[in-house]
């Protein structure tokens, strides 16, 4: 083989190598964008309300993704019917304080999953227990299941509690919240959502907590009116809702974004 042939072969091999590198992604691979999250089936709400609020241009119905929150008070649930009629997600009460397990938690947890309802569990905060103890109690009863919604910390005043009605200083409240948030984040691999009410949010200046995603209760006005300037992901807009497949009145919630936003949020925030 002559020198010219050898040189030609070298150039051909070099060119082929470049093609292979290009095909394999010679440069650093691009990270998957949120817009590429797989689509999620959304069923639109077919709900009614025993005591509807006149929303005056800020109707929750403008949001396409709706769901419910349930506890021991919802003893009869046909999750398949609820899913078909617009229940896309459910936050299920699991624990309270450091010694109470909701007796309907396991039934709701399994039923929602079988029906294809995206499910998450919440812990009701008890003001007379150490935050570490409460977090461990929650971990004991709520499994880490990939694809579940983030855990929820429900913090509100408890003036009708038979055992604990104390109202501690805002700094103490926020400190305890931060302890449980950190413990939940480490345990489940995704940060929890914080549910709260208007008075509790204001009294304890909960907006001072950094990096917290909020689920806000506001049944007589849009959250932008009750929580000015506060970003929210879920909005509990009624406690007197009527949902096919669910007996009696029930809390109904809206997700803040579009169907695409919902898919992206699930891809980013679900339990890994």
Name a few traits of the molecule.
TIM Barrel; alpha/beta; 272 residues; 8 helices
Summarize the entry for a quick read.
The chain is of the alpha/beta class. The chain is built from 8 helices and 10 strands.
- Main sheet: which strands, in order across? 2-3-5-6-7-8-9-10
Identify low-pLDDT runs.
Answer: 1-34
Termini Cα gap: 59 Å
Mean pLDDT metric: 90
The count of helical stretches stands at 8
Shape: globular
Major sheet: 8 strands, mixed, barrel
Query: Can you identify the CATH superfamily?
Result: Glycosidases
| CATH architect. name | Alpha-Beta Barrel
Q: Give helix and strand order, one letter per element, not per position.
A: HEEHEEHEHEHEHEHEEH
Given helix and strand content, the structural type is alpha/beta
Helix content: 25-40%
Provide the β-strand percentage band.
Answer: 15-25%
The CATH class designation is: Alpha Beta
| Topology-level CATH name | TIM Barrel
Rg to the nearest angstrom?
A: 24 Å
Oligomer: single chain
DSSP summary, beta strand count? 10
- Domain unit count: 1
